[in-house]
Design a protein that fits this description.
The protein has about 100 residues and is an alpha+beta fold. The protein has three helices and six strands. The protein is globular, with a radius of gyration of 13 Å. The protein starts with a strand and ends with a helix.
């Protein structure tokens, strides 16, 4: 699972794991994960508002994801072509 770790500076620097190629709905929202709330959906605009997290900042969340079974590949930013492909694949699978 490709994951981007960022922090929400408007919410006490909460660390968020964004999984941008795991599309959740026809609107193009994708999966995210945080210590509190765990799995959720998010959108591209929220992702853009968050700031990059350092390895030290996301270490705990990274370990939590590994402990629940994720095989993680940390990436730095969203590849828009891959995002478009993931969305297209999602739409083809669910035939909205």
């Amino acid at each position: 699972m490709k994951v981007i770790f960022k922090k929400d500076t408007t919410n006490n620097n909460e660390i968020i794991a964004f999984m941008p190629y795991d599309i959740c709905n026809w609107q193009g929202d994708f999966t995210c994960y945080a210590h509190i709330g765990q799995h959720s959906t998010t959108n591209y605009n929220y992702y853009l508002r968050c700031k990059p997290a350092t390895q030290e900042e996301y270490k705990s969340l990274y370990n939590e994801l590994k402990n629940i079974g994720y095989e993680i590949e940390v990436i730095k930013k969203i590849n828009t072509k891959k995002l478009q492909i993931a969305y297209k694949d999602f739409m083809a699978t669910y035939k909205f």
